[in-house]
Amino acid sequence: MTDSRPNIILMQCHDLGQYLGCYGTDVETPRIDELAESGALFENHFVTAPQCSPSRGSFMTGRYPHVNGLMGLAHGNWELEAGETILPQYLSRNGYETHLFGLQHITQDTDRLEYDYVHSEGNLYPGVSPSVHQVNRARSVADVVSGFLDRGAFESPFFATVGFFELHRVEEENGRFGFDGDRYDTDDPDEVRPLSYLPDRRGIRHDVAEMHGMVYALDDAVGTILDSLESTDLSQETLVIFTTEHGIAFPRAKGSCYDAGIEAALVLRCPEIADDGSRYDELISNVDVLPTLLDLLEIEIPATLDGRSFASMLSDDGAYASHDHIFAEMTWHDMYNPVRAVRTDRYKYIRSFWHLPKVYLTKDIFASEAGRMVRETDGVPPRPYEELYDLTESPQEDENVVYEPKYQETRLDLSRILREWMIETDDPLLNGPVPPGDYEEITAWPSDDT
């Protein structure tokens, strides 16, 4: 190990999915596009969970939510299991100075993360208070990071996690959850492109147009940090990652294991390794990112990780073997929604383990304009226990072919793969319903000691 190892800046935002210009979406994101053009973009990057804490926990540990214990939201009494090692700890133990800017959402105890320096307060949950809303907005966080870089207030090599609030919905005075349109430069609802997997209705267009304002602020913030790396001559010494934890906060996206829920941007720029604008279409899971970073830094990869490195794909040495399939899951969010899924290049198989509505609408989506447009059609009818989608014939996952005769071999094959994965990873769902994180509080009776 030498001091020539790159600095690392990891930028994470909320609820973005792949809603960026560089992923073909009708929105202008020139600075993130610029990062992709000077680095590498992963077109089929999927996360382990369509919700914040479990997905972030997988990214930071390289392990599935039901393996590392974070099966629900960190502010909902779920925590990583004791002994789980996370990315900043791996790096700190190998000579990196570690920093946290903005928010994180994998634990209620920031000390548990063991960053050397924490540069913001109230960095757990994006909906706690107006003051937290303000301090963790993208432009504010980017200014702090920029000052940190400009002052050289670090020892090399350093690792910095940069957590942006955007694109999380905000509860407004009328109880509606929107994208805080008064704060941002939003677009005209009549001019935005409808979401292909939802009906073209006014309330959905309204929310998409409002969300664009957050996208623009996020893009500006990424640009601020990229500019600081250039002006301080750190650009060629820094590995930059931009990603998010799940799909956008709309029905059939966030909170669902459809592609719109588990797709996530992943852009990586690393001098001499990922610096030519390459685009990769191999299946990638976010549990693969941590072992890839360890591999690139020549740090031993623990055998206990669920993900595997794709560093050899970047070097194009022919050694990388693509995933045949990736897995996704959900257990608890603001209600019980136990789901497991497996995706291949062509098929998606989803297994639900409870009596559930056709589409699970998280609290913020249910109480949004977009949610109001589909509550009766999506939030009421029962969901089948099995779903199978031919992504070639039904890319919007709106034609469940699980019972069609010609798909029975595929159904049985994918259900077997999913069940074997659950057995191999000791998934608690196989033993019955998973109690919530505050189960002891729910079942406790008052006593003279309370």
TrEMBL record:
Protein family according to the UniProt entry: Belongs to the sulfatase family.
Pfam families named among the record's database cross-references: Sulfatase
Gene3D superfamilies the record matches: Alkaline Phosphatase, subunit A
MF-aspect GO terms: arylsulfatase activity
Region (Disordered): 429-450
The keyword Hydrolase is annotated on this UniProt entry: yes
CDD domains: SGSH (cd16027)
Protein name per its UniProtKB record: Sulfatase
Record InterPro entries: Alkaline_phosphatase_core_sf, Sulfatase, Sulfatase_N
PANTHER family for the chain: ARYLSULFATASE FAMILY MEMBER, ENDO-4-O-SULFATASE
Coiled-coil residue windows: none
Record carries keyword Hydrolase: yes
Domain Sulfatase N-terminal stretches: 6-298
Superkingdom: Archaea
Keywords from the UniProt entry: Hydrolase
